[in-house]
Amino acid sequence: MPRLSNPWDSDPILARFLRHWMPEQEYKTVKEDLSRFGGRIVQEIDGLGREAERVLPELKQFDAWGNRIDHLIVSPAWIRLKGICAEEKLIGIYYVLRCFFTN
User: What are the Adaptive response protein AidB N-terminal domain coordinates in residue numbering (predicted)?
Assistant: First the structure.
């Protein structure tokens, strides 16, 4: 299996693009954040993603008495990945970037 490297550190084109389009202070902040997050991908997220794909979610629709419950059962890896999305504010990044690139 190929060894995963930090996506930020191994993509000079992305760095040049951001450096060109962003003010210097914002670029410095983003650069540090992306480097840190890239390391987290290698150290934590990649393994969790593989585990989440190996143990797929399961829908339990009924309890032991036949009552409809619609309970989604997910692996601990899925739960941890959800937590990482919240920690890294991945959902909110879209809105920040949309404002940045439309102005």
Answer: 6-90
- Rounded to 5°, the CA angle 11-12-18 comes to 100
Nearest CA to 7 among 34, 33, 32, 43?
34
Helix, coil or strand: residue 80: helix
CA-nearest of 54, 33, 42 to 97 is: 33
Q: Does an H or E element contain 59, and which?
A: strand 58-62
pLDDT in tens, 9-30: 999 999 999 999 888 988 998 8
Determine the Cα–Cα distance for residues 83 and 3; give it in Å rounded to an integer: 25
Lowest mean pLDDT among 19-23, 67-71, 79-83: 19-23
Write phi, then psi, for 58 (nearest 5 degrees). -130, 135
Distances (CA, A) of 24 to 10, 19, 31, 99: 21, 7, 10, 18
